Amino acid sequence: MKKGMKIFLGVLAVIIIIAVGAVFYINSVLSIDKDEALLFVEQGTVNVYRGDETIVGTNELELKENDIIETVDNSKARVMLFNSIFVDLAANTKISLASLVEDNLKIVQESGQTWNKVTRLFGITNYEVETPNSVATVRGTEFEVSASEEESFVILVEGSVSVVNDQGQEIILNELGKVKATADSIEQQELTDEDMQRILEKTLETKKALENERFRIAKETVEKSDLVKNQIESLTGEDVNDQTMNDFFYDIDTKQTDINEVERAAYDKVPVLNKEIVTYVKDISNKIDEQQKLIDGMK
User: Fold this and answer.
1) Mean pLDDT of the chain
2) Which of 23, 43, 77, 294 is the most buried (most CB within 10 A)?
3) pTM, entire model
4) Are 76 and 69 in contact (CB under 8 A)?
5) Domain boundaries, the chain
């Protein structure tokens, strides 16, 4: 083989290796980092206890298995598990992350009130909340747990949930309803007007949390790669910034833009985008739509 041909083939091989490496790099950089558990401080002071260490909670703090999260007076927090389950902590609530195994997620709620939204994104469906006197196993998607040493209350908003007390007595809720559990008794109760008002407020907050997560992932993706940003700007003819992204998602949520058409355009016109991200944004947009329908049905 002539020397010139050898050099040409060598250069070609290097180009191919670089190109393949670039593809793997782009796909790894532009994929969703599924965080086991992230903390979002909504208001006030939130403490995280990790072994003998006390950490003051901050937004997007990565949490670990067995961490204890505590809100105090006038504080609120949200824990997101695997970008799929949203756990809102009201003031004076204390939970621990008992298991962060993806197919066996479990929190222990010592006291206070949590609002739990299981979106089923990424196929994550197994989730359990244990209180001092009951265990709520999710079969549905949205429920509230209030816990104290003496009694626990579980309110189901959507789907179904199994509530079992310390004696093994069980009630399964398959529609909007409320269960009171103690160590040795369990009963279904009527929802109060106060319960209904709180449910409406929390479903609205959940919708906002879903919108915030969608925006966070979209912005993070754009900030990771100028190539993605440039391709989107070339496709839309607009600068990509917080305002244009918010306007874009508003159009999706109000049905002025078809999310399925966006998905197809993203695949065709922005090929560097990882399909997982496109699918996630589409799926979470659909969850936001479902949440709005739930809210509309409660008004």
Assistant:
1) 86
2) 77
3) 0.85
4) no
5) 1-30, 37-192, 199-298
